[in-house]
């Protein structure tokens, strides 16, 4: 069978199988589905560009197995029997610290580019090239410095640096301090209005605004009293005496729910409604307090009625009598623990600066990155060394923990998919170890399958060098045959020693009909011994020979007796000496 396959392969190589020529293709019987018409090993794989091909079962031509994304993914998938999955999307780019990772188009790998800073990496993502620096020193940056905000050049990029709180500055000729957000405010004088000097009046109240004392004048026509004489505020902090009147409507101002204008003795004044008179503030029910004010039944009227403190990123608010908070928008400047930051949009302040040493920066949990203070900013830098990835030991590379070279992460283990029986060729592709399969070159196979000494037979790996499976699973050697492992390509059945193929199977060469060779009969009175020789069965007799033991005309003769053949040999004995003719010749008796 092996010889026939070799002859068939030689004929195909000589006559070809070009499917562009229908006559030639038909002459070698390439199927219509053969995309690449050449002799091939059945079920073997090949690539035509990005097309994965599989050899037809008859070994004549390839058919389409799958269309891969690229030619490289096809080539890498040959050992897997399927297109390799792309490592990344072509043209994708991302930053890991200062390292830009760009997915190489048409190739299943990442190109790494180290930028001068993380910001330079982020700004260059669209162009997939590290962005160039915009400055080398602060004076390269546009704008002007102020007492509380300076231009700085950080990693080649212009930025504004706010001086920390308490830095001295001047505001309109008055000494002040920086607020940590780039502005100058008056020095702290108060926390609340009552901390300020002076006294409140019926038309002017002391107030504290951002630590500075000031005054707030009540609106015009607000009822007031001076030396027990009723009056109305003029809007400038002064209580003016009331005018003459005959009716309350002659008096300036407006009535409220709990206080009304009044004309008493021809002089304008006001009258407070009794307690418990119902009123309303902002749509919320309340009651007058007897001194002209409507007290709401809600928990608040304005935000400052609510418990808590205002911050840079969150202020108290009163909505429909219910206390709450108003959050500053995302990115708004704020200060936290003396460091500049940005509001997170949820009332918190995230620190973005400043540091003078790495001790002021938060620790880094990634074992492949280390906290650092660079140009007054907290950042991280990649480090080398060992790390843990899943349940395996890994190596730090580019700021991430990666599996050692030659392995990949499958689940939580780094494995070599070239030899791992649980992940053979790719993750979660398990070999049938119960049947004896191993993983060799990313493919599940039986031991010896690669070199033709084993195969999967009936669901179990067996040796194909035994008489039960000689060369293939279904080849069983016959009677008097042995399995010779030295076949042309695989093991082959052949006759056992001291036997030969006589046309109807392997025959022992120690029988009377085949003594020493096929159809070599022993004469009457003789029998074949284990050495393939005819010997006489009568003691004292020997076969008369002259080196020819199987001449049909020979007989057993007494030892020493000459034996003459007939000169009428017709036909000539098949084993007569080649120099003999059909005439009289002498054979000497054996001793």
Notes on the structure:
The protein is mainly beta. Among the domains are: 1-85, no CATH class; 303-351, no CATH class. Helices cover 5% and strands 35% of the residues. The chain has 4 helices and 48 strands. A 4-stranded antiparallel beta sheet has the order 1-4-3-2. A hairpin with a 2-residue loop joins strand 28 (369-374) and strand 29. The radius of gyration is 54 Å and the shape is rod-shaped. The two termini are 48 Å apart.
Shape: rod-shaped
Instruction: Please report the distance between the alpha carbons of the first and last residues.
Output: 48 Å
Count the strands?
Answer: 48
Identify the strand order in the major beta sheet: 1-4-3-2
Number of helices: 4
- Return the average pLDDT rounded to an integer: 75
Instruction: Sketch the major β-sheet.
Output: 4 strands, antiparallel
Low-confidence stretches: 1-28, 545-554, 560-591
Strand content: 25-35%
Structural class: mainly beta
Radius of gyration: 54 Å
Helix content: under 10%
């Amino acid at each position: 069978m092996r010889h026939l396959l070799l002859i068939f392969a030689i004929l195909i190589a000589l006559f070809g199988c070009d499917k562009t020529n229908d006559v030639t293709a038909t002459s070698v019987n390439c199927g219509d589905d053969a995309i690449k018409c050449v002799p091939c090993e059945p079920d073997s794989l090949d690539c035509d560009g990005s097309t994965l091909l599989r050899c037809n079962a008859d070994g004549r031509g390839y058919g389409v197995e799958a269309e891969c994304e690229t030619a490289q993914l096809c080539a890498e998938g040959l050992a897997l029997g399927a297109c390799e999955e792309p490592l990344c999307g072509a043209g994708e780019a991302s930053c890991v610290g200062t390292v830009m990772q760009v997915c190489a188009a048409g190739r299943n790998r990442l190109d790494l580019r180290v930028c001068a800073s993380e910001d330079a990496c982020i700004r260059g993502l669209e162009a997939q090239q590290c962005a160039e620096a915009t400055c080398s020193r602060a004076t390269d940056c546009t704008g002007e410095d102020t007492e509380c905000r300076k231009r700085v050049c950080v990693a080649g990029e212009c930025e504004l640096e706010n001086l920390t709180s308490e830095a001295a500055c001047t505001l309109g000729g008055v000494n002040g301090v920086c607020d940590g957000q780039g502005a100058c405010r008056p020095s702290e004088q108060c926390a609340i209005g009552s901390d300020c000097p002076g006294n409140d009046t019926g038309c002017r109240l002391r107030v504290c605004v951002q630590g500075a004392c000031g005054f707030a004048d009540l609106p015009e026509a607000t009822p007031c009293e001076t030396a027990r004489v009723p009056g109305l505020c003029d809007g400038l902090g002064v209580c003016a005496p009331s005018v003459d009147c005959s009716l309350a409507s002659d008096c300036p101002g407006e009535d409220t729910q709990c206080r009304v204008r009044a004309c008493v003795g021809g002089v304008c004044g006001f009258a407070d409604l009794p307690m418990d008179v119902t009123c309303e503030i902002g749509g919320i029910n309340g009651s007058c307090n007897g001194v002209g004010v409507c007290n709401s039944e809600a928990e608040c009227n304005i935000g400052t009625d609510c418990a808590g403190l205002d911050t840079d990123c969150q202020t108290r608010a009163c909505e429909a009598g219910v206390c709450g908070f108003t959050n500053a928008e995302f990115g708004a400047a704020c200060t936290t623990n003396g460091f500049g930051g940005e509001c997170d949009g949820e009332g918190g302040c995230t620190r973005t600066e400043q540091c003078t040493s790495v001790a002021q920066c938060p620790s880094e949990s990634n074992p492949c990155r280390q906290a650092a203070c660079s140009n007054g900013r907290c950042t991280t830098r990649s480090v080398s060394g060992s790390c843990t990835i899943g349940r395996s030991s890994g190596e730090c590379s580019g700021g991430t923990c990666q599996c050692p070279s030659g392995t990949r992460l499958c689940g939580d283990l780094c494995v070599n998919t070239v030899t791992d029986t649980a992940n053979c060729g790719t993750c979660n592709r398990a070999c049938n170890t119960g049947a004896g399969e191993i993983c060799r070159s990313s493919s599940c196979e039986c031991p010896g399958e690669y070199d033709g000494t084993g195969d999967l037979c009936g669901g179990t790996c067996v040796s194909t060098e035994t008489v039960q499976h000689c060369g293939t699973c279904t080849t069983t050697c016959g009677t008097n045959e042995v399995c010779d492992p030295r076949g042309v390509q695989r093991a082959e059945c052949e006759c056992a020693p001291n036997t030969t193929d006589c046309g109807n199977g392997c025959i022992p060469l120690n029988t009377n009909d085949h003594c020493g060779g096929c159809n070599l009969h022993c004469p009457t009175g003789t029998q074949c011994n284990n050495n393939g020789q005819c010997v006489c069965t009568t003691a004292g007799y020997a076969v008369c020979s002259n080196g020819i033991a199987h001449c049909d005309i020979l007989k057993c003769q007494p030892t020493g007796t000459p034996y003459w053949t007939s000169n009428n040999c017709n036909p000539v004995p098949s084993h007569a000496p080649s120099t003999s003719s059909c005439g009289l010749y002498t054979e000497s008796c054996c001793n």
